[in-house]
Amino acid sequence: MSRDALLARLRAGGTWDVLVIGGGATGLGTAVDAAARGYKTLLVEAHDYAKGTSSRSTKLIHGGVRYLAQGNVGLVREALHERGLLLRNAPHLVKRLGFVVPAYSWWAKPWYALGLAVYDRLAGQKGWGDSRPLSTGETLAHAPTLRVKGLRGGVLYYDGQFDDARLAIALLRTVLDLGGVALNALPVTGLIKRGGRIAGVEARDAETGESFRLIGRAVVNATGVFADAVRRLDDPSAPALLAPSQGAHVVLDRAFLPGDAAVLVPRTDDGRVLFAIPWHDRVLVGTTDTPVVRPTLEPRTLTQELTFLLGHAGRYLTRAPQREDVRSTFAGLRPLLGVKNGSSTAQLSREHSVSASSSGLVTVTGGKWTTYSKMGADAVDLASAIGGLPERASRTASLALHGAAEDAGQGSVYGCDAPSLERLIRQEAGGDAPLHSRFPYRAGEVLWAARHEQARTVEDVLARRTRALFLDAAASAECARTVAVLLAQELGRDRAWQDQQVRDYQSLALGYLPV
């Protein structure tokens, strides 16, 4: 459905059963859950789907090995359960991946083997394969660029990997498939109250300036690290719920980790785990944990974070990566629930919270991508009660997401939409032209993104409909003009719009290069 058609549904008025603010993992999961229950559902996003934290994760669907080490067994068990559901419901975007935990001391291998055996047990019937000890030779067969000196073998276990922004787009398409409405570039400017109760939101089309008064029986604040700002639209004196933390990542060429497995370093200097993960023919290294005082829409990797990541990677790889090896570096903010007793953000868990204010604003925050569906279900449970909606059970545990099919496999992030995309590419003149020699993306994918995935800007295409910005920031800047021309043809934009888009995107991409 086109943007004009979706906006027309807003202009038609009426009352929405569930109105969701925020188009990240949590908001999209909430909207899918509500629409699947048959509630009249609307989601509004100020910028773009997964613009913030939800496109900047470590690309893992996992239980959380470090949370097990912290003793949070309940969180790990819940996340492992959700991991199993996601593999079934989105097989085109989630896959099993082996992780090697290298051992460089005599006690490390038996200790890690014991902990990972518990991890396997917590997964129960939704486990993805038993962990097992590895000899030194086996460890190097899976991860041949690990430092050999002092290596005493390792442990192999299995967890999940995914493409976060593409999963967000699959959720968007699922909302629409279920009859819901979702719109990006539609920021909320205020809350509507009647008799002291939340009755909807005021919103504005960022492209045209058109204003909307949107009435909802239940309003859900699912804005991640910005949840406190929305809560204060309701109550200016609301205390902070969140203590955001920044996690930074660097992206390297695949040559730094050419094996078939990821690598997990169990403990870094700041008490976190460090991952080196093959992803889209690159290697993703992360992550840091840096407390953040004030959340921003475009967090940047700090110099000390870049130094930390490259330095720790260099301790374990035969070739130590340097700044000039970094293809892209990005940071995301975690919506962690508040710090208690002066503890560091590295010790905070990824549990989520669902609550309602005295005026009825439902806020869902905390959590992580792996548990987005559970967060959405919990939020809709509360929202439906507050809104006086007919009681209906959540259906998302068994709901296949858009693009999923038994034979979809992991060949394409488009899943069963891939044949339709290929037809478009063949039918459009120049549709098969590559966007850049360093990317697998083609011109037809830009057209598809504009027609079917609500891409409105060059950034939408290069950061989230494709992953070009995160895979190679410099190369993505070089193809910004090509994308701007294609988008302008689809959206009816002029040359001035194209020029501004290119300037804006190239400025953005500079922030993803090491300084």
DSSP summary, beta strand count: 18
The residue ranges in which pLDDT falls below 50 over 5 or more consecutive positions are 339-349
Please count the helical segments: 17
Proportion of beta-strand residues: 15-25%
Helix content: 25-40%
The average pLDDT is: 93
User: What gap, in angstroms, lies between the N and C termini?
Assistant: 42 Å
The description of the largest β-sheet is: 10 strands, mixed
The 3D shape can be described as globular
CATH topology of the largest domain: D-Amino Acid Oxidase, Chain A, domain 2
Based on the coordinates given, report the CATH architecture of the largest domain. 2-Layer Sandwich
CATH C-level class of the largest domain is: Alpha Beta
Give the structural class. Answer: alpha+beta
How many independent structural domains?
3
Alpha-carbon Rg, integer: 22 Å
CATH superfamily of the largest domain: D-Amino Acid Oxidase, subunit A, domain 2
Q: How would you sum up this structure, described in words?
A:
With 515 residues, this protein is α+β, with helices and mostly antiparallel strands. It folds into three domains: 3-53 and 166-240 and 349-398, FAD/NAD(P)-binding domain; 88-162 and 243-347, D-Amino Acid Oxidase, subunit A, domain 2 (D-Amino Acid Oxidase, Chain A, domain 2, 2-Layer Sandwich), CATH 3.30.9; 415-510, Helicase, Ruva Protein, domain 3 (Orthogonal Bundle). Helices cover 36% and strands 21% of the residues. The strands form two sheets. Strands 3, 4, 5, 6, 11, 12, 13, 14, 15 and 16 form a ten-stranded mixed β-sheet that branches. Strands 1, 2, 7, 8, 9, 10, 17 and 18 form an eight-stranded mixed β-sheet that branches. A hairpin with a 2-residue loop joins strand 8 (188-194) and strand 9. Helix 2 packs across helix 10. The longest helix is centred in the N-terminal third of the chain and has 17 residues, at 73-89. Residues 339-349 have low confidence and may be disordered.
